[in-house]
Design a protein that fits this description.
Length: 233
Protein backbone atom coordinates (compact mmCIF):
# COMPACT_ATOMS: atom_id res chain seq x y z
CA UNK A 1 0.00 0.00 0.00
CA UNK A 2 1.16 3.52 -0.72
CA UNK A 3 2.98 4.91 2.34
CA UNK A 4 0.96 8.12 2.33
CA UNK A 5 -2.29 6.17 2.16
CA UNK A 6 -1.10 3.92 4.98
CA UNK A 7 -0.82 7.00 7.19
CA UNK A 8 -4.60 7.35 7.21
CA UNK A 9 -6.63 6.37 10.22
CA UNK A 10 -7.71 2.72 10.36
CA UNK A 11 -10.46 3.23 12.92
CA UNK A 12 -13.12 5.69 13.98
CA UNK A 13 -16.34 6.97 12.49
CA UNK A 14 -16.15 7.93 8.80
CA UNK A 15 -16.47 11.60 7.96
CA UNK A 16 -19.80 12.98 6.80
CA UNK A 17 -18.57 13.08 3.20
CA UNK A 18 -17.29 9.53 3.56
CA UNK A 19 -20.58 8.23 4.97
CA UNK A 20 -22.62 9.87 2.25
CA UNK A 21 -20.35 8.67 -0.53
CA UNK A 22 -20.31 5.12 0.82
CA UNK A 23 -24.10 5.08 0.60
CA UNK A 24 -23.90 5.70 -3.15
CA UNK A 25 -21.04 3.38 -4.07
CA UNK A 26 -22.29 0.54 -1.86
CA UNK A 27 -25.79 0.67 -3.35
CA UNK A 28 -26.90 -2.41 -5.28
CA UNK A 29 -27.62 -0.30 -8.36
CA UNK A 30 -24.16 1.34 -8.55
CA UNK A 31 -22.45 -1.09 -10.97
CA UNK A 32 -25.43 -1.16 -13.34
CA UNK A 33 -25.63 2.64 -13.26
CA UNK A 34 -21.97 2.86 -14.25
CA UNK A 35 -22.45 0.41 -17.12
CA UNK A 36 -25.38 2.42 -18.43
CA UNK A 37 -23.55 5.72 -18.16
CA UNK A 38 -20.44 4.47 -19.94
CA UNK A 39 -22.44 2.26 -22.36
CA UNK A 40 -20.65 -0.91 -21.25
CA UNK A 41 -22.18 -3.92 -22.98
CA UNK A 42 -24.45 -1.83 -25.17
CA UNK A 43 -24.37 -2.06 -28.97
CA UNK A 44 -22.59 0.83 -30.69
CA UNK A 45 -24.80 3.56 -32.03
CA UNK A 46 -24.63 7.09 -33.38
CA UNK A 47 -23.45 9.76 -30.94
CA UNK A 48 -26.25 11.05 -28.76
CA UNK A 49 -28.58 8.13 -29.51
CA UNK A 50 -29.75 7.28 -26.01
CA UNK A 51 -26.29 7.47 -24.44
CA UNK A 52 -24.80 9.72 -21.79
CA UNK A 53 -22.39 12.13 -23.45
CA UNK A 54 -20.46 12.43 -20.20
CA UNK A 55 -19.12 8.96 -20.82
CA UNK A 56 -16.72 10.60 -23.27
CA UNK A 57 -15.49 13.27 -20.83
CA UNK A 58 -12.20 11.65 -19.86
CA UNK A 59 -11.61 9.76 -23.12
CA UNK A 60 -12.20 12.37 -25.81
CA UNK A 61 -9.06 12.81 -27.94
CA UNK A 62 -7.10 10.54 -25.64
CA UNK A 63 -7.78 12.49 -22.45
CA UNK A 64 -6.80 15.88 -21.10
CA UNK A 65 -3.97 14.49 -18.98
CA UNK A 66 -2.02 12.73 -21.70
CA UNK A 67 1.62 13.75 -21.78
CA UNK A 68 1.46 15.96 -24.88
CA UNK A 69 -1.27 18.26 -23.53
CA UNK A 70 -1.27 17.75 -19.76
CA UNK A 71 -0.06 21.27 -19.03
CA UNK A 72 -2.18 23.28 -21.44
CA UNK A 73 -5.84 23.60 -22.31
CA UNK A 74 -6.90 22.48 -25.78
CA UNK A 75 -10.02 22.76 -27.91
CA UNK A 76 -10.73 19.13 -27.07
CA UNK A 77 -10.84 20.02 -23.37
CA UNK A 78 -13.47 22.67 -24.08
CA UNK A 79 -15.58 20.14 -25.98
CA UNK A 80 -15.07 17.56 -23.24
CA UNK A 81 -16.60 19.79 -20.57
CA UNK A 82 -19.60 20.29 -22.83
CA UNK A 83 -20.29 16.57 -22.47
CA UNK A 84 -20.94 17.40 -18.81
CA UNK A 85 -23.57 19.99 -19.75
CA UNK A 86 -21.54 23.17 -19.31
CA UNK A 87 -20.02 25.53 -21.86
CA UNK A 88 -16.98 27.75 -21.41
CA UNK A 89 -17.89 31.28 -22.52
CA UNK A 90 -16.33 32.09 -25.89
CA UNK A 91 -14.10 34.97 -24.67
CA UNK A 92 -12.70 32.77 -21.90
CA UNK A 93 -12.27 29.85 -24.30
CA UNK A 94 -10.22 32.00 -26.65
CA UNK A 95 -8.15 33.31 -23.75
CA UNK A 96 -7.50 29.73 -22.61
CA UNK A 97 -6.37 28.68 -26.07
CA UNK A 98 -4.54 31.78 -27.31
CA UNK A 99 -4.25 34.38 -24.57
CA UNK A 100 -2.56 35.19 -21.27
CA UNK A 101 -5.08 33.13 -19.28
CA UNK A 102 -3.86 30.00 -21.01
CA UNK A 103 -0.24 30.93 -20.28
CA UNK A 104 -0.98 31.50 -16.59
CA UNK A 105 -2.84 28.23 -16.26
CA UNK A 106 -0.13 26.30 -18.08
CA UNK A 107 2.38 27.51 -15.51
CA UNK A 108 0.08 26.40 -12.69
CA UNK A 109 -0.68 23.03 -14.30
CA UNK A 110 3.04 22.27 -14.30
CA UNK A 111 2.89 22.40 -10.51
CA UNK A 112 -0.03 19.96 -10.27
CA UNK A 113 1.02 16.29 -10.36
CA UNK A 114 -0.30 13.98 -13.06
CA UNK A 115 -0.93 10.28 -12.56
CA UNK A 116 -1.64 10.73 -8.85
CA UNK A 117 -4.88 9.68 -7.17
CA UNK A 118 -6.37 12.12 -4.69
CA UNK A 119 -6.28 9.39 -2.02
CA UNK A 120 -2.51 9.11 -2.42
CA UNK A 121 -1.66 12.78 -2.83
CA UNK A 122 -0.04 14.88 -0.13
CA UNK A 123 -2.47 17.23 1.59
CA UNK A 124 -0.49 20.21 0.31
CA UNK A 125 -1.42 19.35 -3.29
CA UNK A 126 -5.05 20.45 -2.79
CA UNK A 127 -4.92 22.97 0.05
CA UNK A 128 -5.45 26.70 -0.27
CA UNK A 129 -2.48 28.32 -1.99
CA UNK A 130 -1.49 25.19 -3.91
CA UNK A 131 -1.11 25.44 -7.70
CA UNK A 132 -4.37 23.49 -8.05
CA UNK A 133 -6.22 25.94 -5.82
CA UNK A 134 -4.65 28.91 -7.60
CA UNK A 135 -5.76 27.51 -10.97
CA UNK A 136 -9.29 26.98 -9.66
CA UNK A 137 -9.42 30.52 -8.25
CA UNK A 138 -8.13 31.99 -11.50
CA UNK A 139 -10.82 30.19 -13.50
CA UNK A 140 -13.61 31.00 -11.04
CA UNK A 141 -12.84 34.68 -11.34
CA UNK A 142 -13.30 34.70 -15.11
CA UNK A 143 -16.53 36.28 -16.23
CA UNK A 144 -19.43 33.80 -16.46
CA UNK A 145 -17.31 30.81 -15.47
CA UNK A 146 -17.95 30.11 -11.79
CA UNK A 147 -17.10 27.15 -9.60
CA UNK A 148 -18.88 24.42 -11.58
CA UNK A 149 -17.16 25.11 -14.93
CA UNK A 150 -13.83 25.75 -13.21
CA UNK A 151 -14.01 22.41 -11.44
CA UNK A 152 -14.91 20.49 -14.58
CA UNK A 153 -12.08 22.08 -16.56
CA UNK A 154 -9.55 21.05 -13.92
CA UNK A 155 -11.07 17.58 -13.59
CA UNK A 156 -10.46 17.14 -17.32
CA UNK A 157 -6.76 18.00 -16.88
CA UNK A 158 -6.21 16.00 -13.67
CA UNK A 159 -8.98 13.36 -13.58
CA UNK A 160 -7.35 11.22 -10.89
CA UNK A 161 -6.57 14.12 -8.57
CA UNK A 162 -9.30 16.75 -8.91
CA UNK A 163 -12.97 15.77 -8.74
CA UNK A 164 -15.99 17.00 -10.62
CA UNK A 165 -17.93 19.04 -8.05
CA UNK A 166 -21.18 20.42 -9.36
CA UNK A 167 -24.62 21.10 -7.93
CA UNK A 168 -25.64 17.43 -7.97
CA UNK A 169 -22.51 16.33 -6.09
CA UNK A 170 -22.83 19.26 -3.69
CA UNK A 171 -26.45 18.33 -3.06
CA UNK A 172 -25.47 14.74 -2.33
CA UNK A 173 -22.29 15.22 -0.30
CA UNK A 174 -22.72 18.66 1.22
CA UNK A 175 -20.74 21.88 1.29
CA UNK A 176 -17.59 21.44 3.37
CA UNK A 177 -15.26 24.46 3.56
CA UNK A 178 -12.80 22.69 1.25
CA UNK A 179 -14.37 19.89 -0.78
CA UNK A 180 -11.06 18.65 -2.18
CA UNK A 181 -9.56 18.33 1.30
CA UNK A 182 -12.64 16.70 2.79
CA UNK A 183 -12.91 14.24 -0.08
CA UNK A 184 -9.24 13.35 0.26
CA UNK A 185 -9.81 12.66 3.95
CA UNK A 186 -12.84 10.46 3.19
CA UNK A 187 -10.91 8.46 0.60
CA UNK A 188 -8.07 7.79 3.07
CA UNK A 189 -10.14 6.80 6.09
CA UNK A 190 -9.81 3.23 7.38
CA UNK A 191 -6.67 2.60 5.34
CA UNK A 192 -8.21 3.88 2.14
CA UNK A 193 -11.31 1.67 2.27
CA UNK A 194 -13.44 4.05 0.20
CA UNK A 195 -10.76 4.52 -2.45
CA UNK A 196 -10.36 0.76 -2.81
CA UNK A 197 -14.14 0.32 -2.90
CA UNK A 198 -14.30 2.70 -5.86
CA UNK A 199 -11.61 0.74 -7.67
CA UNK A 200 -13.49 -2.51 -6.97
CA UNK A 201 -16.68 -0.95 -8.30
CA UNK A 202 -14.87 0.16 -11.44
CA UNK A 203 -13.66 -3.39 -11.94
CA UNK A 204 -17.03 -5.02 -11.32
CA UNK A 205 -18.71 -2.61 -13.76
CA UNK A 206 -16.17 -3.49 -16.44
CA UNK A 207 -14.85 0.04 -16.83
CA UNK A 208 -11.36 0.73 -18.18
CA UNK A 209 -8.67 1.95 -15.80
CA UNK A 210 -8.72 5.30 -17.59
CA UNK A 211 -11.91 6.02 -15.63
CA UNK A 212 -10.56 7.36 -12.35
CA UNK A 213 -11.84 6.50 -8.89
CA UNK A 214 -13.10 10.07 -8.64
CA UNK A 215 -15.18 9.70 -11.79
CA UNK A 216 -16.61 6.41 -10.52
CA UNK A 217 -17.78 8.31 -7.45
CA UNK A 218 -19.10 11.23 -9.48
CA UNK A 219 -21.11 9.07 -11.88
CA UNK A 220 -22.49 6.84 -9.12
CA UNK A 221 -23.81 9.97 -7.41
CA UNK A 222 -25.07 11.62 -10.57
CA UNK A 223 -27.01 8.55 -11.68
CA UNK A 224 -28.65 7.95 -8.31
CA UNK A 225 -29.20 11.33 -6.68
CA UNK A 226 -32.49 13.11 -7.39
CA UNK A 227 -31.02 16.60 -7.37
CA UNK A 228 -33.86 18.44 -9.19
CA UNK A 229 -36.32 19.50 -6.53
CA UNK A 230 -34.32 17.71 -3.84
CA UNK A 231 -33.71 19.38 -0.51
CA UNK A 232 -29.95 19.63 -0.36
CA UNK A 233 -27.84 19.66 2.82
Amino acid sequence: MNEQLAESSSAGTPSVVGQRLHAFVDAERAADDLRRYFAIGLPPGPPGAGVFTGGRFEHLAGGGDRHQVANRFTAEDLIAVQTLSVTVPAPVALDLLEGPLGVQLSELLRGIPTGTDLAEAAASVVTDGSPAHQAWSLLVNQRNVGWVIAGKLLARKRPRLLPVYDRVVRCALGRPPSFWTELRTALRERDGALHHRLLDLRRSAGLPQTVSALRVADVAIWMAHPAPGHRCP
